[in-house]
Structures are given as C-alpha cells and as structure tokens.
Amino acid sequence: MLKIVGVILLAFLVLLFFASLLTVFKAPTYHLWVLAIAVSEFPLIFIGLTGLLLIGCFWVEKYQSASILIGVLALVLFLSPVARAYMVASTLKQNFNTAFGPGSTIINGDNTQPVFSFTKLFKGAVKPFAYQTITYSEAHRLTLDYYPAQVSGKKPCVLVVHGGSWSSGDSQQLPELNSYLATEGYNVASINYRLAPQYKAPLAIEDVDQALAYLRKNADKLDIDTNNFVLLGRSAGAQIALLSAYNRPQNGLKGIVNFYGPADMVWGYSKPASKLVMDSRGVMERYLGGTYNAVPNKYFASSPIEFVNKQTVPTLIIHGENDVLVSPIHSHKLDAKLTENGVKHYYLNLPWATHGFDYNINGPGGQLSTYVVERFVNTVCK
Hints:
alpha/beta; Rossmann fold; 8-stranded mixed β-sheet; 8 strands; 2 domains
C-alpha cells in the first residue's frame, strides 16, 4: 500500500514541478497560459499543496528521495514570484520618485504603505460596491459602469477600457481595481465600446471620445473634476486608450495607464504570438479590416508608438516578461520612445508575470501594479 502511495505522491509532485516551470518559462499553449496566471498570482495555493505533499513523503520509502528533490525544486519555483516581487519592490519607490519627482509616492502625507506585503497574499477579493450603469451613447447603445469616489467633493476620473482582442470583453472585466480606486477617492468609469469584427478601427477610439464628452457634460452630477482625467486600458483596451491619449489629445487628460498593451501594431503583425496560444494576426486583421499587406496604413495609424512626441501625456507602463499574448517588446519599444522624447513615464516590468496577471489584485503582480497605479493617478492629478 505504501508503495502505491509513494508512486502517487511522486506523480503529483512531478505535475506540480511542471506547473512551477510556468513561473520562469513562457506558456506554450492557451490553457497553460491560464494556468500560468494561477501559478504566479495565487502562489500560496501551490506552495501549500506542494508543502503538504512533501510532508507526506516522509511516511513513504518508495521514490522518497526523488519525490523530495522534485518537490523542493517545485517549492522554490512557486516561491520565486514572491521573492522577485520583493526585489522589484525594494527599488520601486526610489525609481518612481526619480521618474515623477520627489514625494511622488506620498499619498495624503503618508509614505509608509508597503509596496509589497506577504501577508496581503492571504487576503480575499476587494469588496465590491454598487456601481451605476449609464448609457453614454444613445446612438450606439453604449454603456459605462460608474464607480463614484467614496470621498465627497469633485474628484479626478479614471476611464477604464477593457481588453478582449478588440472583439470580446465588457465593462465588468477585472472590477476589483475600480472598487479600490473609488474607495481611495477617485471616480472610475469603465466603458463598453463597439467590438470587432462588426465594428473596426477607429470606431472604438471614437467611443472613448464620446465617453469623455458625456462625463464632461455631466461632471456636476457625477462630481467629476474635468481638469483631471486619466485613461487606463488593458491589452487591446490599452491600445485603444494609448491611441486616444497620444493621437486625439483631450482637455483635462493628465495621463494614461497601459497594462500590457500592443503599442506597435506594425511590429506586432510581423512578430505574431504562437497560434497555440492565440492567432494574433487573425485578431488584428478582424480589428483593422485586413492583412498588413492589404491595409498597411491602418496598422500604422493604429500604432500608438507612432504618435509619441514631446507633448505626450505622462504614461505608466505595466507589463510582464512572461506575457505570451502581447510581447513585452511592445512596452520596451514604447519605453524607449517616451525616453527619447523626454516624456514623463514609469515602466513597471514584472519578470515573472504573464498576460492578465492583475486578475488577482492581491497577488505579487497585482499588489505592485495597484501600488503604482494609485500613485500615478495621484501624481498626475495633483
């Protein structure tokens, strides 16, 4: 009986070891990418499971040494996102202050909040509170979810543009950050926009314009400070938000937050993602209306990086190096272009993180990104 238990323990530890490799290697398939989010941003689950199996190894003799060795290796890899989060956190305050000026990490006179906390990994989801669904475009039946600031008076507004390959997703995607920012005193408007393939670029950009116009028009009713808007986009939504901020300047727009967005559509088409993960060329063709050879001007016109100049608004870039859907090279290139033009910006590079890492706001990547987002919004809206 103990021999059978030993074999089962070894088998489970081998599976966990292969899962732990996703903390250092890019996921080769779509389903493994989903697992990579869990492994890197919910590490306590895998650390605990591996630890329990390792304890069980001391009661069996069959394959004991092999099981312990494999289990320890898996445990070390599962711990690595936490260790690397501490490493990034150790210099984050200093680097952020260098980018935006001394005191940029101070909020309400307080600079003591830790950038990353191990105990916070044990916390559950941020408690959501009721938002108001508002129709901002009657012509296209487009709505937004409005999270009012939980502090009285006119406050800045963060307009959130969801991801989903330009063809899916909605305003309720990853809502925890919306609730958190509202609790901290910022209005948040998470919008729906017209989706591909029925609607093609640049219609989604026009929807952002309409949403901003609606928020300005109803600023008194919604307690919005119209001098302080910030755009925030994820993935495809980041491309929309970046292009809106860089190519269609808006009064009162103070900054843009880019979560793992494709900044160079021309380069992105030339270097597609693995088809085992996502048909990125097909996604771009449906959004832009054809291949690069057929409509090259649309790829150029949809590349935010092409519109960076010395007047570009301050930018926060957040990207994981293990991203297999949108290459981090997009963010490397954008970082270099912003530096070349002297634009105030900060690039939070997360070595272990993959696309969608902020699914867990209390995970290693989620904590660091939430920290810089709040301070970026606070800094540019002063």
